[in-house]
Design a protein that fits this description.
The structure holds two protein chains of two kinds. By secondary structure, chain A is of the alpha/beta class. Chain A has three domains: about 75-145 and about 365-475 and about 500-530, 3-Layer(aba) Sandwich (Rossmann fold), CATH 3.40.50; about 150-350 and about 570-600, Dimethylsulfoxide Reductase, domain 2; about 620-745, Barwin-like endoglucanases (Beta Barrel), CATH 2.40.40.20. Helices cover about 30% and strands about 15% of the residues of chain A. Chain A has a six-stranded mixed beta sheet, covered by helices on one side. In chain A, strand 10 (about 210), helix 8 and strand 11 form a beta-alpha-beta unit. The longest helix of chain A has 19 residues, at about 90-110. The radius of gyration of chain A is 25 Å and the shape is globular. In chain A, about 60% of the residues are buried. By secondary structure, chain B is α/β, with parallel strands linked by helices. Chain B has four domains: about 5-95 and about 585-665, Alpha-Beta Plaits, CATH 3.30.70.20; about 110-190 and about 520-570, Fumarate Reductase Iron-sulfur Protein, Chain B, domain 2 (Orthogonal Bundle), CATH 1.10.1060; about 200-295 and about 445-510, 3-Layer(bba) Sandwich (FAD/NAD(P)-binding domain); about 300-440, FAD/NAD(P)-binding domain. Chain B contains 23 helices and 29 strands. In chain B, the strands form nine sheets. In chain B, strands 10-9-8-11-23 form a five-stranded parallel beta sheet. Chain B has a five-stranded parallel beta sheet with strand order 13-21-14-15-16. A four-stranded mixed beta sheet of chain B has the order 27-1-29-28. In chain B, helix 4 (about 125-130) crosses helix 19 (about 565-570), helix 9 runs parallel beside helix 17 (about 490-510) and helix 13 (about 315-320) packs across helix 14. Chain B starts with a strand and ends in a 14-residue tail after the last strand. The chains are: A alpha/beta, B alpha/beta. Bound molecules: flavin-adenine dinucleotide (FAD) and iron/sulfur cluster (SF4) (2 copies). One iron/sulfur cluster binds near residues 58, 61 and 587 of chain B.
Chain lengths: ~750, ~675
């Protein structure tokens, strides 16, 4: 710690580190440490572009020193979920977990072990890798597939572009003349450090900005010239109707389509209704989306005739049933307007993730030096899944995997229900799974049925309460790691600020401890520092070879290596400028509006061209009679998913509440601030109403991530959105958080 | 030099990063205290809402009133850069800053006087300003809540005074007299028309205090307000009821001129119901209506003889006097009634030349609703009061009254339904002789033809029926308040009703659910306990000089003469400052903040003095992820950022230049073609 960073007069050391707390950003922190304790935090105050941290990092001191942190390993003494635990030693914790892993493996086979490590901190070493390596060495486990956030987007990108690296750097927004923020609220979700700042600058330099969203978000309010409200689950319909206008008015960039895409004609026939007899006119879309036909027409013309124009597609509409289609349609529209691969345009790919050098997921970039693992024996011999395209990536993308949202279903049904195994043991890290998965109540039921659950946590979350063994993991202030900025072009070191508090340990230490207790002696022979040096070198070799300031030693001091920023990086520029030498990594080498691979699957729910498919629990579902309101579960400004919900400085800023339109509230006799019960057949939650004109009638929003907090009767008072969501998955695995019907009523204590 | 902040409202996304960074830097615990505050401002209706954020730390006033009133002298303004700093050692330590406690609930920071005031005027705040010689600022602070400080300084029923905790030591503060003093001390008050920021207009029927109060609050919220008044004069009962010797016309007129100066339009001689109707108002585009027609219908008792010519009704009598109409009055006037109106009728009769003016009433002396002060003054003027009587008939001769037959009462009481119960003393019948008899036994509103044939409901008592929370009538968008709803009450009650109605009318116009969201002070005075410091020295209450009785009874000249400056300051210094936190009370921007813990000290931005010393920006400026904040000398900031406005808000205008400038966000252009609507 001492070698890095500067010393101030009053005996404070300032540690440079980076925060990447799954908050959407990735920003520089300058942590003031005195007598071994963090006393305050500053952010970047150097040359622009500065990477300024948002409120969550600024409050991190309260998280680090939170009185409710888990301080030592514990074993459960009460019933699952009751939250009664007893302190144990690390030795006991390691040996219990080891014994259980061995017992379950030997009794039921390794496939009955599920291991899931989510993101929490988007780091490289202290993340999935250590436990994955251990379990692969110990006989294997059942892994999960799919991203909670944007599986629909990744699928669409891979099907259409053959890659999911579809984003330009954010400074390229300054070159756009028109920016369409489709369900995109970076003012809250940040979506890469400085994104809101670039949007403000783009607006100030004259770009027209349009927001399409069920809510008048802070981004819409701050940046947009126009807001078009749209019902959830209907975005693909509006995009397709825009395509209709462009086609019928012959505004498409035909030269671009001819040169760079395949299958446009098939899409055109669908749009015009030649194959199904339904022309996808703006009037057709108005009835579905709530957006006025004339608005759709005008926007379509504007998008087709303003160049360059960036259609930035947020990932929330992708988190609906058939969310894949929305992303496919957006990419198709970007191709029709010829905005791909040009500065100021956009690929229409996801607004977050998939940045140009694999930077967003540093653990995914296939550079050298990373902690590897032997092949997972459980995956051996299983065929590839049929609901994902090859380009989706992983070689081991086998059908033994369970979708990330389906643990509960798999546990409850097992082999009898068509799953590859019966599941008995669950090892979780970096996730408040029960709180954050669809249908929390079903997850609770499933978790009660498991034989053994181990959870690595910092706090007594809902998920932690179901653990048999709780392993206190430290925060990124107490360990070193490597990360990157995604669409803000840097990579850097997470530098440890203070020694681990209490008895908490890092991921690597925990996995090593379990390995030892399992008798796997060759698990790991490198120190944290050795690993990180290797990781930096591997990364550097690919992305910043020989560049000054990109080496390990400098990063220890400065935390960041900033890529030269004279020109924005533009996704697919290479392909557009020189297709011959840089074909798209698809089977055809072009952008696949029509995908033969999808056609071969012959699954009407995953059509080869983008289509609008009506969702279950949509506005026309008969269920809407009973549950007339559609739910969206957005990001909360003061949380990163469920992280930070317990931090007092943040809690006091914004109460957890359900946003409801004034008209809907009026009809139910609800005033702003009233406690209301939000319910459907799956669950209920009681929380205050935020009555506002900023959400369209018929739609309510419960920001996800609030901690489930049941009363004696089991009714949640924390405002946990997932007591309401349905645990169905979209055909290609999109997580359907925004496809839910419910009702709201004034809460009367009974 | 004046150091200040720049805030770019067009960039702020309301992310609160500045607030959290500030808390971290200054190590302020979670809780209500925020040095930098960010608050949303939501307007408009779906699908065209408007949202902007307001952000302010301290304004570092050129003339910081927080420093003026702080009893511990903990706040100072630095000459070199204009930064207002707090000495946290001194804060709350050496001086009395709050002695209020509730029943076991620990310290609270409200005083008995302000919770009792129906309009919750910041009494301790303006008294502190008076005690420091800041009369203009005291008046400004009153005006934050009160549309009619001049009137109230004269005739307020002052419920607050009877709750004043100083009476545990000696006598209560002369709150009303201090209010009057501050008002009189400011001679040339100017008003400028307020900007209209909202499209909608509101029609108000009646220009009494209730109507004026609604108008005041709504025009300050940016609405267009128009008052329709039946009479040729403005002010309702303040103009045609309360006599000049208590409320000189000039005072009422000054208050009214002030309000008109803000842009409130008042159309006199325009009764609604005759000619123009309620529906006409809606048709003319008024989006909400407030009915405040008062209670002007005086009654006579239904006893024989009241039809005689010389039997009058108090309210009509006073109205005629006030409007300068000719009145026939005898030499011996007997007023029936125990309220303030009865007392006023008698005193007016005396001033009009009656030889004798007497008051007879049902209530015992203690039960009389008239204010003790007014009864005492009346008695000084020679008015005799006959309490505890019931009246059987008016004795008449040749169509003229000669007296009233009365019975003495042992006991009387109104039950909770308002029904009267009496026990008369048998054989006590006697006649009170008089040649003119004035009934002043209660009045009710005149609701016809205004409400005749409409769907607006009326109570059994003949008042307008409203939702007691929102004051909305049975017709949505039509609200009512004041005497027309309560029956004759007091000016301050009418003002309080106006405030409540204005709050809900605003919500109504914004399309919000009315609900129960009006924040009334939840504490009542009797629950408030104070710990009077043992060393508090007794101090005489300053009595206000009055005209001699001889001078009074022959003219309508004002009786009370007002304090001199020294007297006022002496009286103001008697305030024991029960509730403390005077800095917060007088700050025009509510900047000083306090943590939730007991004895929490004042928290306020100091521009991060420690960082300035190291040549760094204040932490918020460096934290803002939108680069929406800046700081420096105000002059330099103006040059650097151009296109700016000075911060708006309630300001002590003449003495204070705000030190915050900002780039405002405007409603977006609604350039959407008509076919899309
Ligand atoms: C003699 C007397 C002395 C008083 N003394 C005091 C005192 O010392 N202190 C105190 O606090 N209070 C006193 N009051 C009471 C106080 O004046 C009233 O409570 C107060 O004025 C009520 O206010 P308001 O706005 O509800 O009605 P008002 O003041 O009565 O105003 C109602 C107005 O509506 C107008 N109006 C009625 N119908 C229509 C129509 N159809 N169209 C248009 N306009 C219409 C009326 O002409 C009137 O101007 C006194 C009252 C009287 C009569
Ligand atoms: S804004 Fe308020 S706290 Fe700040 S100097 Fe002015 S009066 Fe004092
Ligand atoms: S940090 Fe900047 S953008 Fe965020 S609330 Fe503060 S002023 Fe607004």
């Amino acid at each position: 710690m001492s070698e890095n960073n500067q010393q101030t007069e009053n005996n404070e050391t300032i540690i440079y580190t980076v925060c990447n707390s799954h908050c959407g950003g990735a920003c520089l922190l300058r942590v003031h440490v005195k007598d071994g304790a963090v006393i305050r935090i500053e952010t970047d105050d150097g040359e622009e572009p500065q990477f300024r941290a948002c409120l969550r990092c600024r409050a991190y001191r309260q998280r680090l020193y939170a009185p409710d942190r888990l301080k030592y390993p514990m074993k459960r003494v009460g019933a699952r979920g009751e939250g009664k635990f007893e302190r144990i030693s690390w030795d006991e914790a390691f040996s219990t977990v080891a014994k259980e892993l061995i017992r379950v493996r030997d009794t039921y086979g390794p496939a009955s072990i599920i291991y899931f490590c989510s993101l929490a901190d988007i780091h490289t070493l202290h993340t999935m890798a250590p436990m994955h390596r251990l379990l692969c060495m110990a006989g294997g486990y059942t892994p999960l597939w799919g991203f909670f956030s944007y599986e629909g987007g990744v699928f669409a990108e891979c099907a259409t572009y053959g890659t999911h690296m579809t984003n330009s750097t954010r400074d390229d927004l300054l070159n756009s003349r028109l920016i369409i923020m489709w369900a995109w609220d970076p003012a809250v979700s940040i979506h890469r450090c400085n994104t809101p700042y670039y949007l403000a600058q783009a607006k100030e330099t004259g770009a027209r900005i349009i927001a399409i969203d069920p809510r008048y978000t802070d981004s819409a309010a701050t940046f947009a010239d126009e807001w078009v409200p749209i019902y959830p689950c209907t975005d693909a319909a509006m995009l397709i109707a825009m395509a209709y206008v462009i086609i019928t008015e012959n505004l498409q960039d035909q030269a671009f389509l001819d040169k760079y895409t395949v299958g446009f004609e098939k899409f055109r026939d669908y749009v015009l209704g030649i194959d199904d007899g339904i022309p996808k006119t703006p009037a057709w879309a108005e009835a579905i989306t709530g957006a006025k036909a004339a608005t759709i027409e005008r926007l379509a013309r504007e998008y087709a005739t303003t160049k360059p124009a960036a259609l930035i597609t947020g990932i929330a509409p992708g988190r609906t049933a058939y969310g894949e289609q929305y992303h496919r349609a957006a990419i198709t529209l970007s191709a029709m307007t010829g905005n791909i691969g040009i500065s100021g345009g956009s690929s229409g790919g996801r607004s977050w993730g998939g940045e140009y050098w694999g930077g967003e997921m540093p653990f995914l970039a296939r550079t050298k030096g990373r902690m590897g693992a032997p092949r997972n024996p459980v995956e051996e011999g299983w065929p590839a899944r049929r609901d994902t395209v090859k380009a989706r990536g992983s070689k081991a993308n086998s059908s033994v995997k369970i979708n990330v949202g389906q643990i509960a279903d798999a546990v409850l049904k097992g082999k009898a229900g068509g799953y590859p195994a019966d599941y008995k043991l669950l090892y979780l890290a970096n996730t408040n799974y029960v709180n954050q998965v669809l249908n929390t109540n079903k997850a609770i039921e499933a978790f009660k049925a498991l034989e053994f659950i181990a959870v690595q946590e910092q706090f007594m979350t809902l998920t932690a309460k179901y653990a048999d063994i709780l392993l206190p993991v430290n925060t990124y202030f107490e360990r070193n790691d490597f990360t990157s900025g995604g669409a803000t072009p840097w990579y850097g070191m997470v530098n440890k600020s203070v020694e681990p508090l209490y008895e908490s340990k890092s991921h690597l230490e925990i996995a090593s401890g379990i390995a030892k207790a399992m008798g796997i002696d060759d698990y790991n022979d490198k120190t944290e520092e050795e690993w990180l040096k290797g990781i930096v070198e591997g990364f550097r070799e690919v992305f910043a070879k020989d560049r000054e300031g990109s080496d390990y030693e400098t990063l220890k001091k400065k935390a960041l290596y900033r890529f030269p920023t004279d020109e924005p990086y533009v996704a697919f520029k290479e392909q557009i400028e020189d297709l011959e030498n840089h074909p798209f990594p698809t089977p055809s080498g072009k952008i696949e509006i029509y995908s033969q691979e999808l056609a071969d699957w012959d699954n009407p729910q995953l059509p080869p061209i983008p289509k609008y498919i009506e969702v279950w629990e949509g506005r026309n579902d008969p269920l809407a009679k009973k549950y007339p309101l559609q739910l969206v579960t957005t990001h909360a400004r003061r949380r990163a998913h469920s992280q930070f919900d317990n931090i007092p400085w943040l809690r006091e800023l914004i109460p957890q509440s359900v946003q409801i339109n004034t008209a809907d509230a009026q009809a139910r006799g609800i005033s702003n601030g009233d406690l209301v019960r939000v319910y459907n057949d799956r669950g209920q939650t009681v929380l205050p109403a935020e009555v506002t004109q900023r959400i369209m009638p018929g739609v309510v929003n419960i920001p996800q991530g609030a901690w489930y907090d049941p009363d004696e009767k089991g009714i949640d008072h924390g405002g946990c959105a997932n007591v309401l969501t349905k645990d169905a998955k979209s055909p290609a695995g999109a997580f359907c958080t925004n496809t839910t019907l419910l009702q709201v009523e004034k809460w009367v204590e009974k | 030099m004046q150091t200040g902040f720049y805030f770019d409202q067009t960039r702020c996304i309301g992310c609160f990063t500045c607030c959290v960074a500030c808390k971290d830097w200054h190590d302020i615990p979670a809780g209500p205290a925020h040095w930098r505050r960010v608050t949303p401002l939501e307007e408009g209706k779906f699908p065209q809402p408007f949202l902007a954020y307001l952000s302010a730390a301290c304004y570092h006033c050129e003339d910081p009133l927080c420093a003026v009133v702080c009893p511990a002298e903990a706040i100072t303004r630095r000459e070199e850069d204009g930064i207002v700093v707090v000495d946290r050692e001194k804060c709350q330590e050496s001086a009395r800053c709050g002695i209020t406690v509730t029943n076991g609930n620990g310290q609270i920071n409200v005083s008995a006087c302000e919770v009792t005031c129906p309009a919750h005027v910041d009494v301790p705040g303006y008294i502190a300003l008076i005690s420091k010689g800041r009369f203009k600022e005291a008046l400004d602070l009153m005006r934050e809540k009160l549309p009619l400080p001049g009137v109230l300084g004269r005739v307020c029923s002052q419920p607050c005074e009877s709750e004043c905790k100083r009476s545990e030591v000696d006598k209560p503060l002369a709150i009303r007299d201090l209010k009057r003093f501050a008002y009189d001390a400011v001679v040339d008050e100017k008003t400028v028309p307020l900007p209209r920021t909202k499209e909608q207009g509101v029609a108000i029927i009646g220009s009494g205090p209730a109507g004026l109060s609604v108008a005041y609050d709504l025009i300050r919220k940016g609405y267009k307000v128009t008052i329709f008044e039946a009479l040729p004069v403005i002010g309702g009962m303040m103009a045609v009821g309360i006599p000049d010797y208590r409320l000189p016309r000039e005072v009422l007129n000054r208050d009214i001129e002030y309000l008109k100066g803000l842009g409130i339009e008042i159309r006199t001689n325009t009764p609604i119901g005759k000619g123009m109707t309620l529906d006409d108002l809606s048709r003319q585009g008024y989006k909400a209506i407030f009915i405040a027609v008062g209670a002007h219908n005086g009654h006579k008792l239904s006893i024989p003889g009241t039809e005689a010519d010389s039997v009058l009704v108090g309210t009509s009598f006073l109205r005629n006097v006030n409007l300068g109409n000719k009145i026939k009055l005898g030499q011996r006037v007997l007023v029936l009634g125990g309220g303030g109106i009865a007392i006023d009728c008698a005193r007016v009769a005396l001033r009009l030349g009656a030889q004798k003016a007497e008051v007879a009433c049902l209530e015992s002396r203690e039960q009389m609703p008239a204010l003790d002060y007014d009864i005492a003054e009346a008695e000084k003027e020679g008015i005799i009061i006959y309490p505890s009587l019931t009246f059987n008939r008016v004795v008449c001769q040749n169509g003229y009254a000669t007296g009233v037959v009365c019975l003495k009462l042992r006991w009387m009481e109104f039950d909770k339904n308002g029904k009267l119960h009496i026990e008369a003393i048998e054989g006590s019948e006697h006649v009170l002789s008089a040649d003119t008899i004035i009934f002043a036994i209660g009045q009710s509103p005149e609701l016809n033809p205004l409400l005749a044939g409409t769907d607006i409901k009326v109570t059994k008592r003949g008042t307008i029926a409203v939702d007691p929370e929102t004051l909305e009538t049975s017709r949505p968008g039509v609200f009512a308040g004041g005497d027309a709803v309560t029956g004759t009450a007091w000016v301050i009650d009418a003002i309080a009703a106006g405030q409540r109605a204005a709050y809900y009318i605003d919500r109504y116009l914004k399309g919000e659910v009315l609900g129960k969201s009006y924040i009334d002070v939840p504490i009542i005075a009797s629950d408030i306990k104070v710990e009077i410091p043992a060393d508090l020295v007794k101090a005489e209450r300053q009595e206000m000089p009055t005209l001699s009785v001889q001078e009074r009874v022959h003219s309508f000249n004002e009786i009370a003469l007002g304090y001199g400056e020294e007297q006022a300051i002496t009286e103001a210094k008697r305030c024991v400052n029960c509730a403390g936190r005077l800095c917060l009370r007088v700050c025009p921007y509510d900047v000083p903040q306090f943590g939730a813990e007991k004895g929490a000290k004042m928290e306020k931005c100091d521009f991060c003095l420690d960082r300035l010393e190291e040549n760094k920006n204040p932490i918020c400026v460096d934290a803002c992820i939108m680069r929406a904040l800046d700081w420096g000398s105000i002059e330099e900031l103006k040059v650097k950022h151009g296109d700016i406005q000075e911060a708006v808000g309630f300001t002590y205008s003449s003495n204070t230049k705000p030190s915050i400038i900002f780039k405002p966000k405007h409603l977006p252009d609604k350039a959407i073609s008509s076919e899309e609507k």
